[in-house]
Design goal:
The chain is mainly alpha-helical. It has one domain. The protein contains 10 helices and no strands. Helix 2 runs antiparallel to helix 9. The radius of gyration is 19 Å and the shape is elongated.
């Protein structure tokens, strides 16, 4: 839960700063900051990906996961869900609706995405909150801009962060406890899950750097396929 708590703090600080100071950062400054975060995201992804003991497992997981995600249209469905919720819950011009718009918009941006899921799982399984720390920086600056434009309703999105993102981390912690008495990076299934997640994180970094827009959400099934493959291969006496 450490990563989620950091995320909550950065959203509160960023949102409050946005309310007090307004939208003062120039577009060029925001792009510079975003580029820096993108570079660090790529580095974290590469570090995670290089922990693999079998690049074939990672490759097969990413390819099969991408096909499944494309079949399920995960990226399109997530975007459609976000659009639907925003239209459904953000109506009218009154002050109360303005608060709702800020809450819903910020909640969707902060919680709907592969970085949220990957970071929360990583935090819950291994106590590694690096990815959520990077996400927290992004969310902090985003909260600043949103609060300046949409008001204090943006600050309420920390409730969604705690429930959704924190819930994923807690679920991963429970899974880790059931998986092994002393779960760690040396557990083969977790090693390959981490490495596969690293590949997806590289995709997020490329997106942040505006190099290549990949449908990263479509690859999310890969993080479930990787440990499953390890278990199957171990049962077959191959791994």
């Amino acid at each position: 839960m450490t990563g989620t708590l950091i995320n909550v703090v950065t959203v509160l600080v960023g949102g409050t700063t946005g309310l007090v100071l307004g939208h003062r950062l120039s577009e060029q400054a925001r792009q510079t900051l975003l580029g820096g975060v993108g570079l660090v995201t790529v580095v974290v992804g590469v570090q995670m990906a290089l922990t693999t003991r079998s690049i074939l497992i990672v490759l097969f997981s990413v390819l099969l996961g991408g096909l499944i995600g494309e079949w399920w249209q995960l990226e399109a469905r997530l975007e459609a869900l976000g659009d639907w919720l925003q239209r459904r819950l953000s109506r009218g011009e009154g002050p109360s609706n303005r608060v709702t718009e800020g809450f819903i918009t910020a909640s969707l941006v902060f919680c709907v995405g592969p970085m949220t899921i990957l970071g929360a799982i990583q935090d819950g399984l291994l106590g590694d909150y690096r990815l959520l720390a990077i996400k927290s920086v992004l969310d902090g600056f985003t909260a600043m801009a949103f609060a300046a434009a949409l008001g204090w309703g943006v600050l309420l999105s920390v409730i969604t962060l705690l429930v959704y993102q924190g819930g994923i981390s807690l679920s991963a912690m429970i899974l880790a406890g059931a998986w092994a008495t002393n779960v760690g990076r040396d557990v083969p299934a977790i090693v390959e899950l981490t490495a596969t997640g690293g590949v997806l994180i590289i995709g997020i970094g490329l997106l942040l750097l505006d190099i290549k827009r990949l449908p990263v959400a479509n690859y999310l099934p890969a993080i479930g396929i990787a440990p499953l493959l390890v278990v199957v291969l171990q049962r077959l006496g191959v791994g």
